[in-house]
Every structure is written in structure tokens, then in C-alpha cells.
Write a structure and sequence with these properties.
five-stranded parallel beta sheet; 14 helices; elongated; 5 strands; alpha/beta; 8% strand
Length: 320
Amino acid sequence: MAESVVGDIPTYAEVPKEHKHKLEDSGFRYIRSLLDPAKPNLGKELRDAWLEYEQGKTAEAQWIRDMDKFECMVQAHEYEQRTYGEKDLEEFQGLSSKITSSKGKEWLALLQEERDAHFSKRKSRTPVIFVIGAFGVGKKTQCALLSQTFDFQHITLEDVLREKSNDQTYLHAKFLKGCLTEKVKVPKELAISLLERKINEGIEAGKKWSIVHGFPESIQELHEFEEKIQKNNYTLLLKCSAEEILRRVVRLGQSSSEAEDELDIAKKFRDFQGTPADVENHLRAEGFLKEINCDGTVEEVNDLVAKAVEEFIKHAEVEN
């Protein structure tokens, strides 16, 4: 709290402990001076609590001192995740020797397990292909064909969420069912953890590659995936001309039981937004992306898609 007055005083500044104490005490005295006219006792209570923390004699003070160190270590690991494992902030983990409580040590062990898993995951690349594109380009069809041809695992995020919503042993099953029923987006952290679990299940079943469609739908989802799982993924960007997609949507509407005229379908098409531009641009810049023209027949498009995937496989073999 005193930092709001005197600023942060980092360890590397090498400010003597006694001087640091004086600066922070000055900050609390100023806060007390500000509070005295309205809350005469509050400023004193805040300073007394800080002095109790500084002395570290009570159980409460010792616990807060432990958590102050632990929170710093957690923040360091969060930064490691945001830098995609390119930063190893092991030096911050040296604070572990200053944590003395049994509960604090228990949490330390969990944090270290998480860090070990994070860096282990970064070292072993899991081949993932995102299949993205606007409605009507044939993503689901091409994913199904690729999974048969190359023995890949085909993952649709919506199917994963629905499967877990029906799993009564799963902690968040009821919550997921509510999201799906009300058409509310599932929190990205939860969705990506389930996606990762599904990818790992495929690996355990002998499916070394996973094709993912229906994800990512936003740049926030993509960043979260890259932070928590891996970056530099493969991408198939399926594109059709506007005229061809419109023909397909109209054809779909004519075969539907719903009575929609061509103008209604055309309006839906115009209103529909495909993969957000920022997602597409990021995948182009950070990953290995192949753009496929899908104006042809299913078989013609599949030939193009299969050739692109073969290039992905060759690239992965060189990378590994």
C-alpha cells in the first residue's frame, strides 16, 4: 500500500533495508494523514497492520510474508507462459527457500509441477492443424476426409464441449450444458483445457496429429492456446469465392425444410462473418499456413488439401 506513495522498491535497486523501511513508513504516515479527517482510526490500523507484517512475529504476519513471496513466483510463471516458454525465470523460484509454512510449501510443490509440465510441453511439439474459413467452404467435410486419409484425430470444439456436458463425472458438466443450451460462449480457459485434454487423448490412442475445426474464433482464444499449449501451429485456410459460397448456401436452403427464399439466404450470407481478420493475420505470421481455393468439387479440393498436409508433415519432420 505504501508503494502507492513512494513507488515500488525492487530488490535489484539494492536499497538498504533500514532506508526502505523508512520510505514505506513515510508512505503509511502520509496515508494516515489523508484519512484522519474522515476516518481517524483507519490510518493507524493500516500502519499497525503493516508494522505487524514487517516484524513477522504473528502467525498471520508470517503467512502474509509467505504469500507475498509465493505471489511473486506465480507472477513470474505467468510471464513465462505469456512468452510461450521462451523465458525461463528460474531466478524467481529462489524465493521458495523463504516460504516456511506447510501450506505454502504444498502450494510451492504444485507450482513447480505446473512449471515442469509447461516447459516439458514446450520442448515436445504436438502437431496441430487448425482448419479455418467462412461458412460454406467445406471445413467439416475436408477434416473428415483428412482424418481418414492420414489417420489424424478430428476434433470439433463444439463436439468436445457437448461430450463433457453429458459426462456426469465431470465437474463443470452442468455449467457446460447451460452454456450450450443458452448459446453462451464457454470461458476460453475452460474450452482450451478441454481441447488440450482431447488432443492428449488422441496422442495416447496413437493419433500423433490432431485436426481442429471450430477453433479459434477470436484472437483472445488463439493467444490463450499459444500461451497454455503451444504456438507456431499449422493452419489450413479454406476459401471460396463469394459467388460459390452463395450458390452453396442457396442449395443448402433449397434442400432444407425451412421455407427461405434466395434473398433471405443471401442476406444471411452477407451478414455472416468468417474467421476474424486478426486471427487469420496472426496465424499467417506466427504459424505455417496454407491457403486453399475451395471453389472446385469435394474431390478436387481434397487433393489440394492433402498436398498441403503432406507439406506440413515434411516440415514437422525437419523441425523435430
